[in-house]
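Onboarding guide, step 5: your first structure request.
Type a short instruction followed by the sequence, for example:

Predict the 3D structure of this protein.
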Amino acid sequence: MAKLKEVLVVEGKDDTKRIQQAVDADTFETNGSALNATKLAQIKQLQATRGVIVLTDPDFNGERLRKLISAAVPEAKHAFITRKQGVPENAGGSLGVEHASVEVIRAALQHLSTGTQDDQPLIFQQDLLRAGLIGQPDSRQRREQLGEALNLGYVNGKQLLKRLQLFQVSREDFDQAVAKLG
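The system replies with structure tokens like these:
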């Protein structure tokens, strides 16, 4: 496999170790959720010279980092793993990229999303209600399935619409994914 041109932005050294088992790539470690102005400036510089792909943990802190980076570097690409794919083998550990299999990481890097937006949203709040993605007892499960199908990662009900619009999921792709939900 050829070396990735882009730099993978990850949370820590354990993420880097796992990624290097899966692909030939350089990583930039944020050292957890402590993302300061200096590190954001470095990520901007990396984007300008090589491009960046954000691959953070599928948890609250990982999503927080992703949002901070997206705000500062809107043209960054994003790769996602699901919560199930980031579960540690040992009980008591936290969710993370370092627990994902080599195959999962490779697959995530094959399905990149960009943060560029058009002016017109393609999917609306009422679409989420109609699809049972919010406001129903099984909505969380349906959102997890949808996130996997569309490579959006895990999102809660409030984040879902924004994520769908941010990654410009087409009406056709949305409808097809919803039709396959269990």
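Each response can be followed by summary notes, for example: The CA atoms of residues 15 and 98 lie 4 Å apart.
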